[in-house]
Amino acid sequence: QVQLVESGGGLVQAGGSLRLSCAASRITFSNYGMGWFRQAPGKEREFVAAISRSGSSTCYADSVKGRFTISRDNAKNTVYLEMNSLKPEDTAVYYCAADVLSKWGQCTVKESEYDYWGRGTQVTVSS
Fold it and tell me: Going by DSSP bridges, is the β-strand pair 121-126/92-99 parallel, antiparallel, or unpaired?
């Protein structure tokens, strides 16, 4: 059974940084497009960032573009989300997800196209 385990969340002041990690197991990691989503209290889950299977393509939500960076290390079966210049509105539970049908060189933006999900890690940004 595929496992995705997020880590790296926590409490940070506005303007600070965090680096989230998502470790995958029981999959051929390089065959999957990967993405990060988040869900704030009382809101629907939303797309944050995605990366293609090889890492050659990345996509970002407008709200995080220029502040967040997604990357992956296929040798370590891990995808990362570097978050800088954090704002209180970034407070949410962050989830990583894997897309088994990801096309080569493309990143997956639609939540419905992801097949596997982690349990999430809480990120809280204080003002």
Answer: antiparallel
Rg for the chain, CA atoms, rounded: 13
What is the rounded distance in angstroms from the CA atom of residue 74 to the CA atom of residue 38?
23
- Distance between CA 127 and CA 117 in Å, rounded? 30
Greatest alpha-carbon span in the chain: 40
In single-letter form, the type of residue at position 26 comes to R
How far from chain centre, in Å, is Cα 92? 12
The DSSP result for the chain, as a single string, is: --EEEEE--EEEETT--EEEEEEEESS-GGGSEEEEEEE-TTS--EEEEEE-SSSS-EEE-TTTTTTEEEEEETTTTEEEEEE-S--GGG-EEEEEEEETTPPTT-----GGG--EE---EEEEEE-
pLDDT in tens, 82-121: 999 999 999 999 999 999 988 888 999 999 999 999 999 9
CA 39 to CA 43: how far, in whole Å?
A: 6
